Amino acid sequence: MDTTSIALIIAISCVFTALTTVFAVSRLLGNKSGLTPDQIRQQVADATNEQLIRAQQILENSTEIRLTSNSEAISAQNLQASQTIGALVAPLQESLKALDNKVADLEKNRATAYSKLDEQVVNTHGILTKLMTETTTLSGALRRSDTRGRWGELQLRRILEMLSMTEQVSFLEQKQEQGDGVGRPDVTVLLPGERVLYIDSKAPMAAYLNALDETDLDKRNAHFLSHARALKDHVSVLKKRDYTAGDKSLNYVIMFIPTESSLAAACEVNPNLIEDAARDRVILTSPTALIAVLSNISMLWQQDNQAKNSQEIAKEAGELHTRLSVFIGHFGKIGASLGKAVDHYNSAIASFDSRVMPTAQRVATLGRFDKELSALSKIDVKANESRKTSGLESVSDEEVS
Fold first, then answer.
1. Environment class of residue 316 by beta-carbon count within 10 Å: exposed (0-12), middle (13-18) or buried (19+)?
2. pLDDT category of residue 284 using cuts at 50, 70 and 90
3. Whole domain around residue 101: which residue ranges?
């Protein structure tokens, strides 16, 4: 029950009580029995209490009815709200259930991925450990001059094989050459026109490796300068061997540096290193530059082979033209012979029809032979001449020889 209804009921009860009191007082005042004031007050109080009890009962009944009505309305509203909330929550429950399944799958995948990741980390650690060991071994080996030389030659051989160059066909290894001194380049590359290109592998790595291990900047620069001087010394050695003095040699020799970084470090501290070497007819090349040079040489060989093939094709075409002339001459003779044979055949048929056939028919009549002799037909065929579009003329074998 709301506040307005309760206040209205109380107001009505008060008015009713006041009217009842006034009515009772008026009756008592009009009573001539001579009641005392105390008796009158008692009667008024009794009437007032009776009216208050009635008003309280009315209020309680009204409140109970109102509470019952409100309770039923609230119950209906709660039921409707519960149904509405249930309809709204049902999709959410399904989504939460699907989310739980997804989370479970993700957790399972995460556990599997972490397991594989742990395995990969263990494998990577083992690989890195092995790589560090091998790197240390390689670094120690490269500090030996004989090992560095062999390693440079191996790198050079790998590049040649990568470009599909074949030994004894495209290049020669360790071929003895003569200059002012005695020299033997690592590789002699064969070029078209019976020219050659000499390649010598040099790998001065001691100072370079010391520079990589050094932490002090000044000492590192000093090692790099020593490395650049070592490369320049090798250039001087190649210049003295005078590989370019031969008639077949190009006017420069290639000095192959197996590592890009070592050549770059030397050029960084001595920017004129490549230019000075070029003036001595020595070209400093890294693996990348050497691949470019040898690729161009391979293209030169392809062009040379194409030129040779073109010459061979022209030669074979001339021979074919000559042989076609002889062949056409023979076919011309065959055609002439066939024409004469057809003429002789037709003459024989004419003689047979005019001289032999009449006599044979008379013999058949006299002898009463039932089987008749078949008649022979002439051949009326003339050989066609080929169109002379190729300009070939028939020649005899004697003319060809």
1. exposed
2. very high
3. 3-108
